[in-house]
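Side project, low priority. Logging it here so it doesn't get lost.
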Amino acid sequence: MIKDVLINAEKYYNLSPSIERALKFLQNTDFSKYEKGSYDIDGRNLYMNVEEYTTRVSDNIEAHKKYIDIQYMIKGEENMGVTTLDNLVVTDEYAEEKDVEFYKGDAPLTLVKENEFIIFYPTDAHLPCQVADIPKTVKKVIVKIKI
C-alpha cells in the first residue's frame, strides 16, 4: 500500500509503466466532467470507476487478484482499512468475474482526504468507504490496473 498526495505522484512513476500511466491520467483529468460510472482508459487493461456515495461503517474487507487499485479522493474524505491477507478469514470466496474476495478481520484505518491517493496491490486487503467522523458524501475515482 502506498498513500500520498497527487502532487507527489511523479515519485511513483518508476513502479511500473501502467502505474505511471494511471497516475498521469489522474493528474491530467478534470473529473468534474465525469458522472458515476465505469470508463475505459485502455480497455479492461486500464479503466476507472467514478463513485459517489455516503461513507458508512462496514466490515467487508476486500482484495483483488487481477488488478491493482489506485483510489483517488476527489471530494470529501473517508477512512480506509488496510491489512495483509494472512490476518483475515475468507467470508465470500473469490469471484473471478468481479475480481473480488471478501474477508473479516482487523484492518487498521487510515484517513484519505481530498487530493490524496492510495495504491492497493493484490496483497493489500482493504476496507474502503468508511466513516471518518460523521457520514459524508464523497466522490472518488478508482483506477484499475490489470496485472
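Brief comment: The two ends are 15 Å apart (CA to CA).
Revisit when time allows.
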